[in-house]
Design a protein that fits this description.
121 residues; alpha+beta
């Protein structure tokens, strides 16, 4: 069975996962994967995180910000989630983990005020 890719970049991929083969349901709907870590996500976390990642990529592309800055921001996403899960002693990222991530990383206004040296010439 092919897994649906919900978000893909060189740094981060989020894809749906199939149910367990024994007929039981897994609490994880998707996983975020980087070269260093794989983080299971519940359904609510998946929906919010994928939307956030798409907005982030669209903003940096439309604003002609450097690809390096987008790469750095995407790396920070997995780092923040991994740290949040370690602090809670949990292995499944939930809605509150993603909303906390968004509070920490900010949104459009915060990204617009990042240093000018990150803008493409």
């Amino acid at each position: 069975m092919k897994q649906a890719v919900l978000f893909k970049s060189p740094q981060v991929t989020v894809h749906e996962i199939a149910g367990l083969g024994d007929g039981t349901a897994s609490p994880a709907k998707a996983v975020l994967t980087t070269s260093k870590v794989t983080i299971p996500l519940d359904a609510a976390a998946t929906e919010v995180l994928v939307g956030y990642l798409k907005i982030m990529r669209s903003y940096y592309t439309a604003a002609h910000r450097s690809k390096h800055l987008l790469s750095s921001q995407l790396d920070q996403v997995s780092l923040h989630l991994e740290t949040s899960l370690q602090n809670r002693g949990n292995s499944l990222a939930e809605y509150q983990d993603v909303t906390y991530l968004i509070q920490q990383m900010g949104c459009l206004h915060d990204w617009a005020t990042l240093p000018a040296e990150y803008q493409n010439a």
